[in-house]
Write a structure and sequence with these properties.
Largest sheet: 3 strands, antiparallel
Structural class: alpha+beta
Strand content: 15-25%
Helix content: 25-40%
Number of strands: 3
Order of helices and strands: HEEEH
CATH architecture: 2-Layer Sandwich
CATH class: Alpha Beta
Number of domains: 1
Strand order of the largest sheet: 1-2-3
Length: 72
């Protein structure tokens, strides 16, 4: 699969408003794939970018990219 193939899949995103008023977004299936910003839309855009970089780095390292969790 290519980076774009993985980007088209539906991964589990968790969003949380922190004590400082920033939105923290992360992809549960990708360890350490987190982004934040002062608006939820910006945080999700940042997460999308972080997701692409996470997938690229994982593939370049010869590791397996997890598939989305179908149980949620």
């Amino acid at each position: 699969m290519t980076v774009n193939d993985y980007m088209a899949l539906h991964y589990t995103i968790v969003m949380k408003l922190d004590d400082d008023g920033d939105w923290i977004c992360k992809i549960l299936e990708f360890d350490g794939c987190v982004a934040h910003d002062d608006s939820v839309l910006k945080a999700l855009r940042n997460l999308h970018e972080a997701q692409r970089m996470w997938i690229e780095a994982t593939l370049e390292a010869g590791q397996e990219v997890p598939m989305p969790n179908e149980e949620i």
